[in-house]
């Protein structure tokens, strides 16, 4: 608002006199002439430098500091808007002063023109927040060095000026909260310097259009890469929208940002997004690589940046353009701080790695989920086979640890025993219950993360309501099968050995040691069970990684056409070998990894002087069964033995809980689902369990097996022992 009373002539250099200060305050703050915001503003405007980029930038920093003062400039006149935030109230005061003071307005106009003429914005608009293609360790080293070593000043780049003016990430929220209307009025006052000075708007507009063309070239190169094209075989090279993206950017530049050219560009950007979505949907079929997921994310970010720039260029001058510009600038500020953050780099790469390892794990986890009564019974039988193999592995483990072997060979043979048992389970179609949680967690995360829309919460709850009961009763079937078989098999082996040899399989000292180490509170069983849960999760990661490696490298296809295999087994036999590799890849990879971890971890702990051990529920139950046979029937009812049996139950709960929690957390992160949202859905499912627990334990008789994520089943023709 312009005040009609003429203002006194103000000094443009030095500190204003007391008389000038009082007159200025009465002029622009008649209701509060002593307000510090008004006095500080006059001092600031009286010290606008005439030339030199660095002095001008220092003045801009002082202006931002004045704007960010928490004391609002409200109640200065009768027409003040008391609803304005402190920053916007000060911005309104600045606009009123510049509207009424021509000399001050001219000095600020020259300053703005000088800063824009000496600065370049191509890096800010086309590079900030978009990867330069460095590897993880190279980028990590660079960020650590920048955090410790002083960086050279680059005052001619708007990217550096933005961080200089807003040094903390939270400044992005402050920037986005500024009033577009007030900024538009300020731009109208100081944005048109007298000739021959170039206008700041034309300079920034040129940088935006250059960035648009550069981004188009970069995204086109990424989108036309071979591994992206291989995942859209139905689209010819000439029909790729990424080719049109480059031409659309050139058209925007040639036509100086005409509305029609910008509209064409936005349509091409949306077509490119469709290609990215198609490639992303087919990742699990063709395998995932961190490099590919990384480049898909770079393409998506580049397309988002191009769309944001096009919206700024296409908006009418004034408030609409500033609204789009503030959104772009606040996003650039957040990304500029992320580009310097080590934590952001680690978090981003961890997400990419998580995306790689869970895609195949989730696909494998589908085989562990049953739907019908027949599949439930099949899971019990499959798990019973797993219990049988586990009992034999426990017996061999006691035999191997009793041999006088060097530590290396003792660990090697124990690892071969465990890994061999897991591989046998896989090849025979048997199931180990503790491998299920980390596998099914990825499938559950997929159900939580799918779909978006107005009714996404309803659809997700419908999926979870159908999927979670299948997971829980499948897990129950596996537990019953494992533990229900490992006990009688272990007892039969122990009694058979005693019948043949005349003495128990374990000595009294060995049996008592087993009982003592399984005590739930007098031993470190709980900690060891947690460690084993971590190893179970790690083995599921290895399973997903190995299967993904097989798929991504197209090894089954290569084996099916291998000359030697075709010569030995024929075309049909070679195809069977390839299919067998694909079918058993995850199970073998995860089983071998878990076997090695279970055998090596105690040795690693001993090497560092840490008493590490493993507690796997199935093997612990089998070991306790052997110990019970050695101690006799009377000892089985002793409090210590019963406490050890309770310890086995604790081990089972901890094994399942830790592996499931880790897998679910990684899977939710990889699918960009907030952990709080995933926990909220699981909490709702838990309430549903309290109201009707039976479907979570026993499959309904009349429930059909449906397709999709809601009903992943164990194929009866293929073993679920992945």
TrEMBL record:
Keywords for this protein: Membrane, Transmembrane, Transmembrane helix
UniProt-annotated stretches for the region Disordered: 701-722
Domain of life: Bacteria
TM region(s), chain numbering: 412-433, 476-500, 526-546, 585-610, 617-636, 642-668
Pfam families, per database record: SpecificRecomb
InterPro entries linked to this entry: Site-sp_rcmbase
Protein name, as recorded: Gliding motility protein
Native source organism of the sequence: Corallococcus exiguus
């Amino acid at each position: 608002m312009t005040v009609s009373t003429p203002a006194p002539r103000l000094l443009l250099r030095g500190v204003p006199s007391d008389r000038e200060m009082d007159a200025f305050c009465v002029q622009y703050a008649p209701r509060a002439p002593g307000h510090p915001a008004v006095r500080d503003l006059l001092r600031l405007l009286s010290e606008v430098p005439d030339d030199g980029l660095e002095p001008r930038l220092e003045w801009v920093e002082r202006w931002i500091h004045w704007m960010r003062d928490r004391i609002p400039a409200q109640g200065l006149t009768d027409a003040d808007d008391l609803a304005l935030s402190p920053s916007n109230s000060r911005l309104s005061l600045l606009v009123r002063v510049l509207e009424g003071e021509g000399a001050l307005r001219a000095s600020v106009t020259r300053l703005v023109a000088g800063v824009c003429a000496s600065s370049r914005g191509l890096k800010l608009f086309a590079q900030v927040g978009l990867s330069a293609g460095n590897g993880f360790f190279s980028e990590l080293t660079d960020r650590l060095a920048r955090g410790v070593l002083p960086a050279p000043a680059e005052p001619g780049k708007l990217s550096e000026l933005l961080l200089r003016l807003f040094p903390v990430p939270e400044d992005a929220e402050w920037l986005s909260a500024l009033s577009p209307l007030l900024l538009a009025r300020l731009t109208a006052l100081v944005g048109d310097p007298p000739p021959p000075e170039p206008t700041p708007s034309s300079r920034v507009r040129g940088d935006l259009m250059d960035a648009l063309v550069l981004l188009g070239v970069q995204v086109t190169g990424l989108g036309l890469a071979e591994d992206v094209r291989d995942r859209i075989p139905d689209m010819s090279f000439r029909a790729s929208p990424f080719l049109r993206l480059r031409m659309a950017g050139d058209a925007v530049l040639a036509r100086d940002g005409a509305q029609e050219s910008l509209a064409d560009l936005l349509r091409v950007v949306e077509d490119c997004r469709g290609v990215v979505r198609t490639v992303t949907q087919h990742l699990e079929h063709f395998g995932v690589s961190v490099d590919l997921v990384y480049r898909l994310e770079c393409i998506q970010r580049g397309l988002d940046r191009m769309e944001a720039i096009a919206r700024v260029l296409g908006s009418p001058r004034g408030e609409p353009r500033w609204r789009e510009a503030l959104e772009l600038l606040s996003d650039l500020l957040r990304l500029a701080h992320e580009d310097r953050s080590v934590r952001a780099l680690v978090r981003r790469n961890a997400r990419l790695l998580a995306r790689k390892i869970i895609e195949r794990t989730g696909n494998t986890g589908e085989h562990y989920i049953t739907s019908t009564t027949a599949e439930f019974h099949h899971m019990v039988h499959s798990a019973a086979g797993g219990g049988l193999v586990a009992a034999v592995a426990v017996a061999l483990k006691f035999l191997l640890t009793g041999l006088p072997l060097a530590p290396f060979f003792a660990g090697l043979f124990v690892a071969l025993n465990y890994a061999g048992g897991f591989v046998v389970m896989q090849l025979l179609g048997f199931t180990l219950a503790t491998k299920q949680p980390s596998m099914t967690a990825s499938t559950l995360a997929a159900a939580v993360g799918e779909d978006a829309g107005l009714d996404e919460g309803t659809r997700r709850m419908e999926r979870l309501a159908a999927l979670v009961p299948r997971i829980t009763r499948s897990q129950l079937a596996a537990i019953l099968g494992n533990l229900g078989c490992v006990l009688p098999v272990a007892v039969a082996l122990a009694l058979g050995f005693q019948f043949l040899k005349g003495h128990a399989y374990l000595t009294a000292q060995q049996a008592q040691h087993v009982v003592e180490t399984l005590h739930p509170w007098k031993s470190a069983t709980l900690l060891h069970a947690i460690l084993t849960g971590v190893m179970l999760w790690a083995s599921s990661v290895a399973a997903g990684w190995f299967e993904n490696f097989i798929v991504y490298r197209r090894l089954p296809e290569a084996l099916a056409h291998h000359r030697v295999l075709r010569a030995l087994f024929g075309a049909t036999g070679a195809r069977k070998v390839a299919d067998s590799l694909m079918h058993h890849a995850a199970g073998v990879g995860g089983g071998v990894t878990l076997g090695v971890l279970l055998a090596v971890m105690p040795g690693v702990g001993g090497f560092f002087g840490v008493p590490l051990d493993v507690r796997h529920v199935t093997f612990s139950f089998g070991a306790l069964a052997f110990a019970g046979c050695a101690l006799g029937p009377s000892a089985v009812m002793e409090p210590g033995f019963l406490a050890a049996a309770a310890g086995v139950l604790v081990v089972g709960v901890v094994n399942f809980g830790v592996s499931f929690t880790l897998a679910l957390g990684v899977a939710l992160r990889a699918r960009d689902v907030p952990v709080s949202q995933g926990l909220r859905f699981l909490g709702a499912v838990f309430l549903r369990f309290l109201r009707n627990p039976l479907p979570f334990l026993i499959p309904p008789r009349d429930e059909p097996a449906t397709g999709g994520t809601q009903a992943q089943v164990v194929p009866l023709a293929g073993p679920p022992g992945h």
